[in-house]
Design brief:
Elements (H helix, E strand, L loop, with lengths): L1 H10 L2 H20 L22 H26 L5 H21 L6 H11 L2 H7 L7 H28 L8 H21 L6 H7 L7 H34 L1 H7 L7 H19 L7 H27 L5 H16 L5 H10 L5 H26 L5 H36 L1
Helix pairs in contact: 2-6, 2-7, 2-8, 3-5, 3-16, 4-5, 4-6, 4-8, 7-8, 7-12, 10-14, 10-16, 10-17, 12-14, 13-14, 13-15, 13-17, 15-16
Length: 428
C-alpha cells in the first residue's frame, strides 16, 4: 500500500502534492500538540503537596520548557545530521515517550510530578525538525511551511479546548486530562507520519531553485555560522523575544482570558486562534511568489517587522479603548505569529538557498529554538518573582511593547546586514 501511495504522489501535480504533504505535516504537528499543551487548560490552584513560593503551574511550564529547550539544543546536532530514512521511526518513538511521561504525571504525586513535565518536553522538542525535514528545500516550501505552521497556531487552542471539555464534561481530573488528550490524538500522529514518510524527495527542479538539502556535520555548521554569524545573531535575539511572548500567551491563555472576562468557555481557545492562523499565514504563504531568494529573504524580514508593529499597535489600540479584548487578542496574536512563524520555516529555508550551501534549514531552526526557550523561562521567572502582584494581562501588555520595539530594531539591523551581503555577492 505504501508503494502505491508513493507512486501516486510521484505522478501527482504540484497542487495535489502540496495538498497531501501540507495536510500530513499539519496533522503530524497538530497531533504533537496534544501531548504538549492540554495541561495548560487547567489552572492547578491549591494542589496538595505543593508548598513553594513558585506557583505550581509556572513550575510545570518551566519544567516542560526546560526539557523542550534541552531537546532543541540536542536537536542542533541530531536533526542536522539525521538520516532521512530514520525520521518516521524517530517521530513515533519520541511521541510515545512523551505520552508515557504524561501518564507518570497523573500517577506521581506533587511535587515530584513536576519532573515528569520535564521528561514530557524532552522528546517533543525534536518533532518540528523531523516534520519540517519532509517539506524543506522544495519550490512550494513557503506554502507547505505556512500550512504546517498553521498547526501550532490552531492546535494549541484546539487541544486546550479538548482538555477543558475532558475536565468539564467527561469529569477527567486535571492530572489525567493531559494523558487522555494525548491518547485521543495518537492515531492521527501515526497516520500522518506514515503519509509524510511516503513523500518523494525534492526533485531536480526543487534542488536547482532551493539548493540540495543534506545532513550537515559539525564542520559545515561551523563554516555557515562563520560566514553569517552577525545576521543570525540579530535574528536569534529577535526570536528569543518572540518565543518568550508567544509561549507566555500560549501557556497562560486560560489566565489571560479570565482576566479579560472570558474564563468560563472552552470554545474561546479555538475561536480566537483560527482567525490568528488565517491572518498570519495568508501573508506568509504569499512569499512563494517571490522567486529570487535574496529578495524573498528581505521580504520575510519586512513581514516580521510588520508583525511586530501589529503586535505593538493593537496593544496600544486596546489600551486606548479603540478595540475590545477579543479583537486585541486576535490582532496581537496575528502580529506575534507573523513575527514568530517565519523562523520555523521560510526564513531559514531561504537563507540556506541564498547561501548556495548544501545543508538543512533544520540546523538554523534548532539553533534559534534552543536560544528562544531560554527567553521563555526568563519571562516566567520574572513574572513569578519580579511581578507577583501584576495581573497576567498586564504582563502580556508590557512584554508586547518590549518585543515590538526591541524586536524591530534587531530585525531591521539583520535586514541591512543581509542586504549588504547580497550586494557584495552581486558585485563579485
Amino acid at each position: 500500500m505504501s508503494t502505491a501511495l508513493r507512486r501516486l504522489l510521484d505522478r501527482s501535480g504540484p497542487i495535489t502534492f502540496t495538498a497531501v504533504a501540507g495536510l500530513a505535516g499539519f496533522a503530524a504537528y497538530f497531533a504533537m500538540y496534544a501531548f504538549r499543551k492540554p495541561f495548560s487548560a487547567a489552572t492547578f490552584s491549591h494542589v496538595p503537596g505543593w508548598d513553594f513560593a513558585l506557583d505550581y503551574k509556572i513550575a510545570l511550564v518551566l519544567a516542560q520548557v526546560a526539557g523542550y529547550a534541552l531537546s532543541k539544543l540536542i536537536g542542533i546536532k541530531v536533526i542536522s545530521e539525521l538520516d532521512p530514512t530514520r525520521r518516521a521511526f524517530t517521530f513515533i518513538g519520541l511521541i510515545l515517550a512523551a505520552w508515557v511521561a504524561l501518564i507518570l504525571f497523573a500517577v506521581v504525586p506533587a511535587p515530584w510530578n513536576v519532573v515528569t513535565l520535564f521528561l514530557n518536553g524532552l522528546p517533543l522538542g525534536m518533532i518540528w525538525g523531523l516534520v519540517f525535514g519532509y517539506i524543506e528545500g522544495r519550490r512550494t516550501s513557503e506554502v507547505l511551511g505556512a500550512i504546517v505552521c498553521a498547526s501550532f497556531i490552531v492546535s494549541s487552542g484546539a487541544v486546550k479546548t479538548v482538555g477543558k471539555l475532558l475536565m468539564d464534561h467527561w469529569h477527567v481530573s486535571p492530572f489525567w486530562m493531559p494523558a487522555a488528550a494525548g491518547a485521543l490524538f495518537l492515531p492521527l500522529a501515526l497516520i500522518s507520519i506514515w503519509v509524510l514518510s511516503e513523500l518523494p524527495p525534492p526533485s531536480a527542479a526543487d534542488e536547482a531553485a532551493r539548493v540540495r538539502r543534506a545532513p550537515m556535520d559539525r564542520a559545515a555548521r561551523s563554516a555557515f555560522i562563520a560566514d553569517y554569524g552577525l545576521g543570525i545573531a540579530l535574528l536569534v535575539a529577535t526570536y528569543i523575544l518572540a518565543t518568550a511572548l508567544r509561549d507566555f500567551r500560549d501557556n497562560f491563555a486560560a489566565e489571560l482570558w479570565s482576566n479579560l472576562g472570558y474564563g468560563n468557555g472552552a470554545a474561546i481557545f479555538t475561536a480566537s486562534e483560527v482567525p490568528v492562523a488565517i491572518m498570519a499565514l495568508a501573508v506568509l504563504g504569499l512569499i512563494i511568489v517571490v522567486r529570487d531568494n535574496a529578495k524573498a529573504l528581505l521580504v520575510i524580514h519586512a513581514v516580521i517587522v510588520a508583525g511586530l508593529s501589529l503586535l505593538g499597535g493593537s496593544t496600544l489600540a486596546f489600551q486606548l479603548g479603540l478595540i475590545g479584548p477579543i479583537a486585541w487578542m486576535i490582532l496581537s496574536g496575528a502580529g506575534l505569529y507573523m513575527a514568530y512563524t517565519p523562523f520555523n520555516a521560510m526564513l531559514f529555508d531561504r537563507l540556506i538557498a541564498v547561501s548556495g550551501r548544501i545543508g538543512t534549514a533544520g540546523f538554523l531552526i534548532y539553533l534559534a529554538d534552543a536560544s528562544g526557550y531560554a527567553g521563555s523561562c526568563a519571562l516566567l521567572i520574572w513574572r513569578n518573582f519580579g511581578l507577583p502582584s501584576m495581573r497576567w494581562v498586564q504582563v502580556y501588555i508590557a512584554s508586547a511593547y518590549v518585543t515590538c520595539i526591541v524586536g524591530n530594531v534587531l530585525v531591521i539591523g539583520a535586514a541591512l546586514y543581509f542586504y549588504s551581503r547580497s550586494r557584495r555577492v552581486v558585485r563579485a
